[in-house]
Amino acid sequence: MQWCTDFDAFDLRVRLPAVVSKLHKAINRNGGVTYVHCTAGLGRAPAVTLAYMFWVQGYKLIEAHNLLQSKRSCFPKLDAIKNAAADIVSHFTFLIYHWCNGSLKY
């Protein structure tokens, strides 16, 4: 099943948080091991892996990228990962602001 359009940085940016969440659940369910793949293994799968290492495991993005590159030459869209992280932070900042001011409505 294709979860993200090939070579589409915006689609990756939008879908990445949900996919990383699913990856995290799969890793926890499978004793810490999960196989991540896409068609060529050069863009989407590495981007998901990097985002997981960055957001969940606490790596700096450049450290995660260097580690991944040492294992496999690939071309993940780093800007999509950075922008997705900024989207997550800005969304939570918005929620916290409105919750603190009593204007958050569900």
Automatic annotation (TrEMBL):
Cite the Tyrosine specific protein phosphatases domain residue spans from the record. 14-72
Q: Name one process (GO BP) from the record.
A: starch catabolic process
GO MF annotations in UniProt: carbohydrate phosphatase activity; starch binding
User: InterPro entries per the record?
Assistant: Dual-sp_phosphatase_cat-dom, Prot-tyrosine_phosphatase-like, Starch-Glucan_Phosphatase, Tyr_Pase_dom
Name this protein carries in UniProt: Phosphoglucan phosphatase dsp4
Family annotation (PANTHER family):
DUAL SPECIFICITY PHOSPHATASE, SUBGROUP, CATALYTIC DOMAIN, PHOSPHOGLUCAN PHOSPHATASE DSP4, CHLOROPLASTIC
Which GO terms of the cellular component aspect does the record hold? chloroplast
Q: What is the lineage of its organism?
A: Eukaryota, Viridiplantae, Streptophyta, Embryophyta, Tracheophyta
